[in-house]
Amino acid sequence: MSIPRGAISAVRDAQHVFVLTGSGVSAESGVPTFRDAQSGLWAKYDPLQLATPDAFLNDPALVWRWYRWRRELAARATPNPGHLALVRLARFVPQLTLVTQNVDGLHQKAGSRDVVEFHGNLFENRCLNENVIVTDAAECVDVPLCPDCGGPLRPGVVWFGEAIPAKPLETAIAASSQCDLFLSVGTSSAVWPAAGLADSAASNGASIIEINLEATPLTSDSHYNLVGKSGEVLPELLDCLPL
Ligand code: BV8
Q: Which residues line ligand 1 (CB under 6 A)?
């Protein structure tokens, strides 16, 4: 695609870029997005129903099977050119805050630093009772148990209906109000409160650039809509900068 000159200038001149990524940035790494039809055994399940406290309390073994399936997919995945372009971008701009809704760890695998995991991390285990990260649990059971209290462990992600952890939330809110460019990449802008971060940036005068395959609720508020695969558009955008 040919990237509008205004979008190139906005990135070139930005002092603080806020990047918000969604599952679309990992799609070209083979990690299905949330709205992709789930495959195989999981085809009959709705992720929005499985990623909830009720689903876990109702059938923890089923939810653990789903997360183990996703962990295997993510563990096999490698960062794509979109992830790598964001690493390059962080070296080019004076300040970059990368907030991801993804839990797959691919930004870190690509070399991004200080990644703000807004919805937690797929590979972490947390004690359901004590709400602490647990690293030494036996994994070879349907529902791993906390070695300290014996209660069930859960994946270290934020489920629907759960609050975003304080630190990532504070970091993201502060950065969204200070940035001068907000770059939305591969997200349907449908999940809150992540979807509200762009509004915060815009209300503080930031330019909005959206990279997506389709229109989203953010599209009409964006100054530039780069329609295409993030694994292609982001490297092309970086190649237009005087690196
Ligand atoms: C909360 C971890 C309250 C788990 C996830 C208003 C305000 C606040 C809350 C709400 C609200 N309205 C509704 C809510 C409730 C809810 C919500 O937003 N529901 C939605 C469905 C309407 N929000 C919550 O429950 C949040 N919690 O508000 O708590 C509270 C407050 C205090 C005290 C107690 C409670 C928590 C939300 C977090 C949920 N957890 N993930 C897990 O992974 O298992 S969210 C999960 O879904 C993903 O992490 C991801 O963030 C999200 C899906 O969004 P996307 O990433 O955008 O992915 P999606 O598939 O939707 O879209 C992919 C996009 O990529 C598409 O647009 C596609 O076109 C594009 N694409 C595809 N390929 C490419 C591409 N683009 C570029 N290149 C490509 N190659």
A: 22-24, 27-28, 33-35, 48, 51, 101, 103, 119, 157-163, 186-188, 190-193, 211-214, 216, 229-231
pLDDT digits (tens, 9 = 90+) for 112-157: 999 999 999 999 999 999 999 999 877 678 999 999 999 999 999 9
The domains found in the chain, sorted by start residue, are 5-31+77-119+164-239 (3.40.50.1220), 40-75 (no CATH)
pTM: 0.96
CA–centroid distance, residue 34 to ligand 1 (Å): 8
Q: Find where tokens 């939305």 sit.
A: 184
Q: At what angle do helices 230-239 and 5-13 cross, to 10 degrees?
A: 70
Q: What is the chain's alpha carbon radius of gyration, rounded to the nearest angstrom?
A: 18
Return the best residue to mutate from 191, 214, 218 for the ligand 1 pocket (most ligand atoms within 8 A of CB): 191
